[in-house]
């Protein structure tokens, strides 16, 4: 009879221990699963997003001197970035733009966050109403004065981390 009671207690203790272990581990497993699904979704988004800077130029005349070609009172650098991925890219004002002489570039703020201080950048969608696949984004960097001649570096990073860079001569 004593063995029966001890065996019953052991069975009950085993069941309680199993339930306790399950209740403590299940939330961690569920949270880990959610994190994996979220990471897969972000990775999938990055894999389907691609951009390419296809051309860049400054407001230069035929002899290579700066001129205010568009009459806005500033000297601008233009570059065109194409969405060559299969995903639409949104939040365009959150794109990071880096520009400067080779080896000495800096992040250029968007016009909304620059506070009216040069340089800053603006954008225009050239052939679509949003930055869909095959659409081109024209980015204009506005400067208060002219830039020195030389080789310049441009880098664009989308909000989801996709990037491209380009070297141009001025």
Question: What's the arrangement of secondary structure elements?
Answer:
Elements: H1 2-47, E1 51-58, E2 75-83, E3 96-101, E4 106-108, H2 111-114, E5 120-125, E6 136-143, E7 151-157, E8 163-169
Antiparallel strand pairs: 1-2, 2-6, 3-4, 3-7, 5-6, 7-8
Helical content stands at 25-40%
The total beta strand count reads 8
Number of domains: 2
Shape: rod-shaped
Describe this protein's structure.
It is a single chain. The chain has 170 residues and is an alpha+beta fold. The chain contains two helices and eight strands, in the order αββββαββββ. The protein has helices at residues 2-47, 111-114, and strands at residues 51-58, 75-83, 96-101, 106-108, 120-125, 136-143, 151-157, 163-169. Strands 1-2-6-5 form a four-stranded antiparallel sheet, with no helix packed on it. The protein has a four-stranded antiparallel sheet with strand order 4-3-7-8, with no helix packed on it. It starts with a helix and ends with a strand. The mean pLDDT is 87.
Task: Write a compact overview of the structure shown.
The chain is an alpha+beta fold and 170 residues long. Helix content is 29%, strand content 32%. It has two helices and eight strands.
Question: Descriptors for this entry?
Answer:
170 residues; alpha+beta; Immunoglobulin-like; four-stranded antiparallel beta sheet; 2 helices; 8 strands
């Amino acid at each position: 009879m004593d063995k029966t009671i001890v065996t019953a207690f052991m069975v009950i203790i085993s069941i309680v221990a199993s339930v306790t272990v399950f209740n403590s581990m299940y939330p961690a497993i569920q949270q880990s699963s959610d994190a994996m699904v979220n990471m897969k979704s972000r990775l999938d988004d990055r894999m389907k997003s691609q951009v390419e800077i296809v051309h860049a130029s400054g407001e230069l005349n035929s002899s290579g001197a700066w001129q205010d070609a568009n009459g806005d009172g500033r000297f601008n650098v233009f570059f065109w970035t194409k969405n060559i991925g299969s995903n639409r890219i949104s939040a365009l004002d959150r794109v990071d733009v880096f520009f400067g002489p080779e080896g000495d570039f800096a992040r250029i703020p968007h016009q909304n966050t620059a506070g009216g201080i040069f340089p800053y950048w603006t954008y225009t969608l050239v052939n679509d109403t949003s930055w869909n696949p095959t659409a081109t984004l024209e980015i204009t960097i506005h400067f208060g004065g002219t830039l020195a001649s030389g080789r310049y570096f441009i880098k664009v990073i989308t909000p989801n981390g996709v990037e491209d860079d380009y070297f141009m001569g001025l």
